[in-house]
Inverse folding.
């Protein structure tokens, strides 16, 4: 897997308008793993793409009325089938972490890459997702020298009072044994 001009060559590109420039003095130093499903607990649709591109129709599901106006994005989504979708170039700041802190440093969006796994906190992730996540992280570690396998964490760890993802069903030992 290659990264060219801060985009994964093997990813489906669905550019999101929800990004901005990283602060000039920030280097990429953190990878944050998340999970998402839209509507909650449902997989394989286009709703995640629509959310990250500000195109979610609030009339298509009651839950969407609560979230359709929020401006969010991640750098990547890994679908349950293993397909990788990229929304934001890695050198840009995606809006995935919100109010957050890692090792005493706030504003994680400034220095992190956000990777969403299609799933829920309580449901096992797929073999293909673990394989693709490992491959993606290896490509990121090779491309960005300040990233380290020691600085891969979950959304729940950087925003513990607000978030629980990727959840108890995510196998951290399995992921970290690859590095």
């Amino acid at each position: 897997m290659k990264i060219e001009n801060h985009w994964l060559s093997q990813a489906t590109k669905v550019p999101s308008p929800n990004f901005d420039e990283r602060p000039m003095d920030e280097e990429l130093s953190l990878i944050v793993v998340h999970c998402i499903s839209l509507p909650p607990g449902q997989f394989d649709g286009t709703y995640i793409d629509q959310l990250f591109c500000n195109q979610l129709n609030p009339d298509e599901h009651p839950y969407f009325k609560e979230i359709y106006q929020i401006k969010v994005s991640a750098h990547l989504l890994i679908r349950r089938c293993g397909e990788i979708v990229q929304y934001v170039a890695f050198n840009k700041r995606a809006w995935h972490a919100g109010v957050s802190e890692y090792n005493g440093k706030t504003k994680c969006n400034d220095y992190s890459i956000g990777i969403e796994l299609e799933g829920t906190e309580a449901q096992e992730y797929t073999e293909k997702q673990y394989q693709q996540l490992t491959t993606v992280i290896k490509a990121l570690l090779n491309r960005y020298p300040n990233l380290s396998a020691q600085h891969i964490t979950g959304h729940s760890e950087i925003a513990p009072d607000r978030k629980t993802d990727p959840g108890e069903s995510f196998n951290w030992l399995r992921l970290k044994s690859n590095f």
Summary: The first strand starts at residue 3 and ends at 4.
